[in-house]
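User: I'm putting together a teaching handout on how multi-component assemblies are represented. Below are the sequence lines for each component of a complex, exactly as they appear in our records. Could you produce the 3D structure of the whole assembly as structure tokens, so the students can see both representations side by side? Please keep the chain order the same as the input.
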Amino acid sequence: QKEVEQDPGPLSVPEGAIVSLNCTYSNSAFQYFMWYRQYSRKGPELLMYTYSSGNKEDGRFTAQVDKSSKYISLFIRDSQPSDSATYLCATASGGSYIPTFGRGTSLIVHP
Amino acid sequence: DAEITQSPRHKITETGRQVTLACHQTWNHNNMFWYRQDLGHGLRLIHYSYGVQDTNKGEVSDGYSVSRSNTEDLPLTLESAASSQTSVYFCASSPEGGSTDTQYFGPGTRLTVL
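Assistant: Of course. Below is the structure of the complete assembly, with chains in the same order as your input.
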């Protein structure tokens, strides 16, 4: 079992929908949680970063961490076709500078 | 603006040849990483470095090597390319003491080994 599990999708939604992307992890030592967005044929780019449990909001994006259930979520409100990409979650315990990545979920937002 | 670049962006080579992929960052980050990304496997760590003269093996290091002679560059060498090394390769960097474990990725090199 990988330390970070993520459904590969694809997840297809209509424009304007609320999108929920999720990951589960197994290592209770993880304290840092990240979401990366990767457009086709591009490198991943950091989208959201949170420490410990709770929510973090940035525009249309909300990252949520539930450490009790080892569950990470990314919500996208009013989704746009430009949000179509692969979203990778990542977790880390801190100090090693090496995150553990999920395999990514492919999101397609159709007009 | 600071950035991380990779070259070449595309490379086709033959089995058995030595190949070197370049990675250059202008952020002055101490930490640099090489990943490969394949369908069904996601990102897998090949090698990483915490500073000049420091190199470490990742989970899929067999057949690859790196050297770190300055802060800006971490070239990845495939000693004798194999078809199993056909993949997309990403270089990344992160600052020491920054937002812990967040990484900044290059645009990738698509390598095909025939």
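A couple of points students might notice: Chain A has a mean pLDDT of 92. The two ends of chain A are 37 Å apart (CA to CA).
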